[in-house]
Amino acid sequence: MIELFGADYSVYVRSVRLALEEKGLDYTLSLIDVFAPEGVSEDYLSLNPFGKIPTFRHGDFILFETDAILRYLDEAFDGPPLQPGGTRDRAVMNQILSILDAYAYRTCVWEIYVERVEKTRGGAAADEVRIASALGEARKIVGTLENLIAGGPFLLRSSICLADCHAAPMLHLFEQAEEGAMLLKRAPKLARWLEMMRARQSFQKTAPDPDTR
């Protein structure tokens, strides 16, 4: 009944997949490669007019935008809750989700990981100016998340929540860049959290296939 449209290399698709795994829900992943030379199909645009991933289908209900999907799957299905019960903890969870979308994805993934790791893997030179220009913002993001960790082992106390599912794919990529690894070494709580998340079965089951890109 649950179909997720997207590609396994996408951090946004992976955040939804992590939540689905943590809820113990069965789903299918239908490949949509937004980087394909021919672009996305008209069939997919009929589901998501913006042509982004992921898109979520539950029966005849279609939903896009990752935050909306995450909240829906937590509230619509049985399984361990992925949103804190307390008003303040829930507000902090929403704050972290906003920080990740507004700042971390662009800075940590595109301006640092993609430049330092993805581009050079293909033989191109990294844009050193772009990386250097992003470091101040990356330092602010890491420091802010470090300060928001409320006592662990998860971002919000003792239970995994949507913020953990959303942050882990982004910071996992970020740490693969030497600049990301350096900054995370200076944030011990965040570094321990990331190591713990990587050891979870949900994270291992949602690892991208290296042959998909």
Strand percentage: 5-15%
Overall mean confidence score, pLDDT: 95
> What spatial order of strands do you see in the largest sheet?
2-1-3-4
Assign a percent range to the helix content.
55-70%
Classify the secondary structure makeup into a structural class. alpha+beta
What is the domain total for the residues? 2
CATH T-level topology of the largest domain: Glutathione S-transferase Yfyf (Class Pi), Chain A, domain 2
Largest sheet: 4 strands, mixed
Describe the protein in words:
By secondary structure, the chain is of the alpha+beta class. The protein is 59% helix and 8% strand. The chain folds into two domains: 81 residues, Glutaredoxin, CATH 3.40.30.10; 117 residues, Up-down Bundle (Glutathione S-transferase Yfyf (Class Pi), Chain A, domain 2). The longest helix has 35 residues. The protein is globular, with a radius of gyration of 17 Å. The relative contact order is 0.14.
